[in-house]
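Practice problem 4.
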């Protein structure tokens, strides 16, 4: 895996488009997120269908075409410096193939932020645009609007990325050691759902895999990790950082799954790293060369996430 292109950092007054590629958005949470962005001296611009809802499938924020148009128009708008997703949920897989990747590539690099279901877009941005993206809080997410740690880490990553080149976790080593590689990953179930698609990576050798999930029982996590193993998606991965596993059952049972499925790979594995569906979620850049130290619980990037 090669390091990807870094977008420019944000400066005071930067215009930030907020889009909803997946699930519907609660208006009160959206307004709270917009107020936070304004407090950072950024100018949020809300896409037309962020508060929309599909007429028949109420788990989607508008039709696939509407959600795709919002994202593409925001990305191709030369006055927009960054695109932040309003929330995850479900739906990015349905609209990702409707995007005009040639037009988005021509628009040049920009900051892209989101997590959970947005994993499908992180993968596509990497394979289609060759661009570093930020796996971090969504603009209308409960953690972003209520948790100071999540807010501050995202703010620093966007505006002063050199101050967060080292990401420190509160976890411990499942398998000790150090590893270097290019960060990638996201929500485990989305990575598995993306296998075989036009946007899926075909080779993750030399990569540091960052994975997390929510609402999946241990046997289902076992099944997904097994699928990655069988698809050879873990071949050549240099290290693994495990994020949050909210509502995934007792952690002792999860740890047994991780030890069984990942412990024999012969690479460092860090658990409870603190990104994903958890309080105070850290923002993790994808597409950058970094060193994972499972013993100290740190991920140190060779350079800031944004130029």
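Answer key:
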């Amino acid at each position: 895996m090669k390091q990807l292109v870094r977008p420019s950092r944000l400066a005071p007054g930067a215009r930030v488009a907020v889009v909803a590629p997946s699930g519907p958005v609660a208006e009160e949470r959206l307004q709270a997120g917009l107020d936070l962005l304004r407090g950072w001296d950024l100018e949020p611009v809300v896409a037309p269908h962020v508060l929309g809802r599909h007429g028949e499938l109420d788990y989607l924020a508008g039709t696939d075409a509407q959600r795709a148009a919002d994202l593409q128009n925001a990305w191709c708008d030369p006055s927009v410096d960054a695109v932040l997703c309003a929330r995850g949920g479900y739906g990015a897989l349905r609209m990702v193939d409707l995007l005009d990747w040639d037009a988005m590539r021509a628009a040049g690099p920009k900051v892209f932020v989101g997590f959970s279901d947005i994993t499908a877009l992180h993968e596509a941005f990497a394979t289609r645009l060759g661009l570093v993206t930020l796996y971090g809080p969504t603009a209308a997410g409960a953690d972003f609007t209520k948790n100071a740690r999540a807010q501050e880490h995202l703010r620093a990553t966007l505006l002063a990325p050199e101050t967060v080149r080292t990401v420190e976790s509160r976890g411990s080593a499942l398998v000790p050691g150090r590893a270097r590689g290019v960060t990638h990953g996201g929500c485990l179930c989305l990575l598995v759902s993306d296998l075989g698609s036009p946007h899926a990576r075909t080779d993750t050798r030399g990569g540091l895999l960052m994975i997390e999930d929510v609402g999946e029982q241990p046997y289902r996590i076992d099944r997904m990790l097994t699928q990655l193993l069988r698809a050879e998606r873990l071949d050549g991965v240099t290290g693994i950082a495990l994020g949050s596993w909210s509502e995934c059952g007792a952690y002792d049972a999860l740890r047994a799954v991780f030890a069984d499925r990942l412990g024999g790979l012969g690479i460092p594995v860090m658990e409870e790293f603190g990104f994903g569906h958890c309080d105070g979620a850290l923002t993790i850049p994808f597409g950058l060369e970094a060193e994972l130290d499972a013993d100290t619980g740190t991920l140190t990037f060779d350079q800031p996430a944004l130029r």
